[in-house]
Design brief:
The chain is α+β, with helices and mostly antiparallel strands. It folds into five domains: 230 residues, Arp2/3 complex 21 kDa subunit ARPC3 (Orthogonal Bundle), CATH 1.10.1760; 239 residues, Beta-Lactamase, CATH 3.30.450.20; 46 residues, no CATH class; 95 residues, 2-Layer Sandwich (Beta-Lactamase), CATH 3.30.450.20; 163 residues, Histidine kinase-like ATPase, C-terminal domain (Heat Shock Protein 90, 2-Layer Sandwich), CATH 3.30.565.10. The chain is built from 27 helices and 27 strands. Strands 4, 5, 6, 7, 8 and 9 form a six-stranded antiparallel sheet that branches. Strands 11-10-15-14-13-12 form a six-stranded antiparallel sheet. Strand 7 and strand 8 form a beta hairpin. Helix 3 packs parallel to helix 5, helix 4 crosses helix 10 and helix 22 runs parallel beside helix 26.
Length: 947
């Protein structure tokens, strides 16, 4: 396989195609090339100055490397092409660099430039530049494609992209060979396919070398690697049908190509074997039988003539008569003549021409050997007579029967042309039965001595070409060679049995191709039919498999869009059928569930629409999600216009905004009074909405109009304040006079009991009046002293003071304080009283168990919590628990004394400190009361700076 550092730069040209289709393909390739360059024009626009310089350098490198460092395949398999393409080892390197650094468009241009050089100076195939351009386009597309997925990530690697692009580009090389092959279509097809197949390994080798080099460069210099954002969905990623076809179709095509390759290669092998076998049979038949018989017959005939004593007669006429008689009886010799020992002519038949008999040099040399006693018989090599006929001479010595003395020389000349019936039969037997090719005989000198073309007789011939493997059953050798016209021939060469001659039969490779066509056509037709049948079957199977899945996908899409009316119709007992049945069952269940939910939603909507309580719901971002008609009426809004808007934009009400933004615990209800612009007041209770994982996803608030209650409460406050003030003095007088009664005289036991009950009643009335006056003072802000105080110390004092009462009821009073608590600004006496009221209530309403007092920080508040294990509070009572004079009326609380003002005082103290008070309770499980006090009062920080 010859290697060249630099190829020839002489005689650039393209060979005209032998088939008219070549010009059609050329036009089509030009149109496609123009379209590709236009399609990827943006790759050129993005080049810039350095990019253009790099592109020009790669174009120049492609032109130079396409005619350098190359070797010429020595394969004899390609037939009927102008020239076998050389293989430049580095020709693909500039193309891959252009694909990696510049894109598919520049890579196509670089490849086309290299292809032009290879077409003009190497193969001269007119479609060769477009084959290389296709390689550049494919490798550029593969390296720069941005499809997502592991497969396409692998395809972006230069070594993989170059091999795959080389394989795909090779598939169109068939047409380059096709347009230069003459003959019927099937013959041309077989020939072109054989030529393209033989070229495939070298094409892949060229792509492999370029891929390895560029892959190594990108590993050594990662900055050169193109940055590809692989986010695009692959073409097959939109449906299962496409996905299956994407993988099945290439496999089918590869399988078909492999079968076509195997059929063609096998057909050529069989055809070659059959052709060689026929050549061998014809040659061996001549070499082992006809030619040896021809030579032996001639020699034996002349020997028989030489033994006749008439030829040794002294009489000329006797000798002449014998020669004439023997010559007429044997048509083998064209001329017989008798010489004496001095080579003088004695007799000749037929008569010699006027110019006389001339011995050839070959005859003289053989006669000399006989006279010298070296041999009794001789046969000369073939030679031409002066008249131009090609003959061989058989020579025998005439001996005295008694003494063995040489008495003369008998020479018989045999014609080697068609005038000799035996030689004519030999030549006819050497010609191939197909009528194409020829057979001839070569003597020991390498000269042709029997040939259908008389002009080639005595021309020199030697074996040329590459030797092919031959069967052991044949004695000859088979060669294959291509002549200067590009025509490949098979040559069978064998020795003649027992003789130095050789028989040669030459057959053009076209005979092999014709026979291969005859062998392969039925197989190819069967293969084509089977391919069509299998392809149709596979497409039907894929369609059959994907159709129900497509139905399921459409059904799931309709379900996702809320349409549950379409029935899922997928039958069968296989996995897809069971999946369809499950989908249908799911659809029915979902439909029933959604209908049930819709009914519940309708009932809920009816309840929300009919209730007089205003209800607002916000999401986790504080956007309004629901407002019932009562809320629309209360705040003067239209739900359709404000839903999904932030609450502060939907409803301009600061207390309402605070209600929805104030921090709250998981189960903590926020209670607030919401004043409306028209003077009404709503009592609002807000709670956090949590999902299944406990995460807050919104807030709901229920608001009831308590304007009438507020008016009654105000009237009650006026009445209570008036009555409290007016009753205080009479009660003082009453207690004074009652306590003086014992001084008036001796009282019996019954009288003292009545006096004590009166005093207790007066004390209770005084306590009630004091509480009412305290509430009024707290709400009015009279006598409140705001100063820094330690809540922890105040709580400790309360627990210490009330621990005796807890012990008296066998209750466990516990205190849980963190290590450190920040001080707050507030009225110590009021805070202590609020805590004392909560602890006192807990002790009162806890028959057994424990009472726990905790203090903790929560956001910007200190929260005092009093938990008990008492009787608990019903939800209906929790809403009014902090109202004045409100007491829970239950059988188990009748005997517990109280004024109903303790929790009202706690609420007033909390609100005076800008805090809040609330309760969490479950009936029968105990309660937890919370008092939240802000760590800093509004204005306290600025006052502290001012001080």
């Amino acid at each position: 396989m010859p290697f060249y550092w630099v190829g020839s730069w002489k005689n650039p040209h393209f060979t005209s195609p032998l088939r008219i289709e070549g010009y059609l393909f050329l036009s089509l390739h030009l149109i496609i090339l123009a379209f590709v360059l236009y399609r990827w024009r943006n790759d050129f626009r993005r080049l810039g100055g350095r990019g253009i310089f790099l592109l020009l350098g790669l174009v120049l490198a492609a032109a130079l490397l396409s005619n350098a460092c190359k070797f010429h395949p020595a394969s004899e398999d390609a037939v009927l092409v102008p020239a076998r393409p050389d293989l430049p080892l580095l020709a693909g390197l500039p193309i891959l660099l252009a694909a990696s650094l510049l894109g598919a468009g520049p890579a196509t241009l670089v490849a086309f430039t290299g292809g032009m050089v290879r077409g003009l100076f190497e193969s001269h195939l007119i479609l060769r530049p477009f084959e290389i351009a296709v390689f550049g386009l494919l490798v550029g597309f593969l390296i720069r494609q941005d499809y997502a997925g592991r497969l396409f990530s692998i395809l972006r690697q230069p070594i993989v992209a170059s091999l795959l692009a080389a394989l795909l580009a090779w598939t169109i090389s068939f047409w380059s060979f096709y347009v230069y092959a003459a003959g019927p279509f099937l013959y041309v097809y077989i020939s072109s396919f054989a030529a393209a197949t033989g070229y495939l390994p070298f094409t892949l080798l060229e792509g492999l070398i370029a891929g390895l080099i560029v892959q190594a460069l990108l590993l050594l210099f990662p900055r050169l690697k193109p940055v590809i954002e692989a986010q695009r969905t692959p073409p097959y990623g939109y449906s299962l049908n496409r996905r299956l076809l994407f993988f099945v179709v290439p496999l089918i095509l590869a399988f078909i190509l492999a079968l076509f390759y195997v059929v063609n290669v096998k057909a050529i092998q069989v055809a070659t074997g059959q052709t060689i076998a026929q050549m061998a049979r014809d040659a061996q038949n001549m070499a082992e039988e006809r030619i040896p018989i021809f030579l032996l017959y001639g020699q034996a005939t002349l020997q028989g003539l030489a033994r006749n004593e008439d030829l040794q007669s002294e009489s000329y006429q006797v000798r002449q008569d014998r020669l004439e008689k023997d010559g007429r009886s044997s048509a083998f010799f064209r001329q017989l003549f008798l010489l004496d020992n001095n080579l003088a002519l004695l007799n000749i038949y037929p008569e010699s021409p006027p110019e006389g008999l001339t011995l050839s040099s070959e005859e003289v040399a053989s006669i000399v050997k006989i006279i010298g006693g070296e041999a009794a018989s001789q046969r000369t090599p073939a030679y031409r007579l002066p008249t131009g006929e090609l003959v061989i001479s058989f020579i025998e010595r005439l001996e005295d029967a008694a003494t063995g003395e040489l008495r003369g020389i008998l020479v018989g000349r045999a014609d080697m042309g068609e005038s000799n019936p035996t030689m004519r039969g030999i030549l006819a037997g050497l010609q191939p039965a197909t009528g194409e090719g020829l057979g001839f005989v070569v003597d020991e000198r390498g000269y042709i001595i029997a040939h259908p073309d008389p002009g080639l007789l005595l021309s020199s011939w030697t074996v040329e070409g590459s030797r092919l493997p031959s069967s052991d059953s044949f004695s000859g050798e088979t060669y294959q060679y291509t002549d200067e016209n590009g025509e490949t021939r098979l040559v069978y060469h064998t020795r003649v049995l027992g003789q130095p001659w050789s028989v040669v039969i030459m057959v053009p490779y076209k005979v092999v191709m014709d026979l291969a066509v005859e062998i392969s056509v039925p197989l190819l037709i069967l293969l084509a039919l089977m391919t069509l049948a299998v392809t149709a079957l596979i497409l039907l199977v894929i369609s059959h498999l994907t159709r129900p899945l497509h139905t399921l996908a459409e059904a799931s899409s309709q379900i996702a869009q809320g349409d549950l009316t379409a029935q899922v119709k997928v039958s069968g007992e296989d996995e897809v059928g069971r999946l369809g049945a499950a989908f249908e069952q799911m659809r029915v269940k979902l439909k029933e569930s959604f209908e049930a939910i819709e009914r519940e939603r309708g009932r809920l909507k009816a309840i929300l629409d009919s209730t007089t309580d205003a209800i607002l719901v916000t999401d986790s971002r504080g956007h309004l999600m629901l407002a019932n008609p009562a809320a629309e009426h209360a705040f003067g809004i239209k739900a359709a216009e404000v839903v999904t808007r932030p609450l502060a934009q939907a409803i301009a009400n600061k207390p309402l905004e605070q209600l929805f933004t104030r921090p709250a615990g998981d189960r903590e209800a926020i209670v607030e009074e919401i004043p409306l612009p028209d003077g009404r007041t709503l009592y609002a209770s807000a709670a956090t909405i949590a999902d299944g994982d406990g995460r807050a996803i919104g807030r709901v608030a229920v608001m009831r109009d308590i304007t009438a209650l507020k008016e009654l409460d105000a009237m009650k406050d006026v009445f209570v304040a008036t009555v409290s003030h007016d009753l205080r003095s009479p009660l003082t007088f009453m207690r004074g006079y009652v306590t003086m009664i014992p001084t008036a005289g001796t009282l019996n036991e019954k009288q003292r009991e009545f006096i004590n009950k009166i005093i207790r009643g007066i004390d209770q009335m005084s306590e009630l009046i004091d509480d009412l006056l305290d509430i009024g003072r707290i709400e009015a802000g009279v006598g409140i002293e705001m100063a820094p105080c330690e809540v922890g110390n105040l709580v400790k004092m309360v627990v210490a003071e009330l621990s005796g009462r807890a012990e008296a009821k066998n209750l466990k009073l516990q205190l849980e304080l963190p290590p450190t608590l920040p001080p707050i600004v507030g009225d110590k006496a009021l805070i202590k009283r609020a805590v004392a009221n909560l602890v006192d209530n807990a002790i009162k309403y806890t028959p057994e168990g424990s009472v726990t007092v905790r203090v903790r920080e929560r956001d910007s508040y200190l929260v005092v919590s009093v938990s008990d294990t008492g009787i608990g509070i019903a939800p209906a009572d929790q809403m009014r628990l902090f109202e004045k004079f409100y007491r829970i009326k239950r059988r188990d609380t009748i005997r517990i004394k109280g004024t109903g003002l303790g929790l009202a005082i706690v609420k007033s103290i909390a609100e005076r400190h800008n805090g809040k008070a609330w309760v969490e309770s479950k009936l029968g499980e105990g309660s937890t009361f919370h008092l939240a006090l802000p760590k800093e009062q509004p204005g306290s920080r600025s006052e502290a700076r001012g001080a």
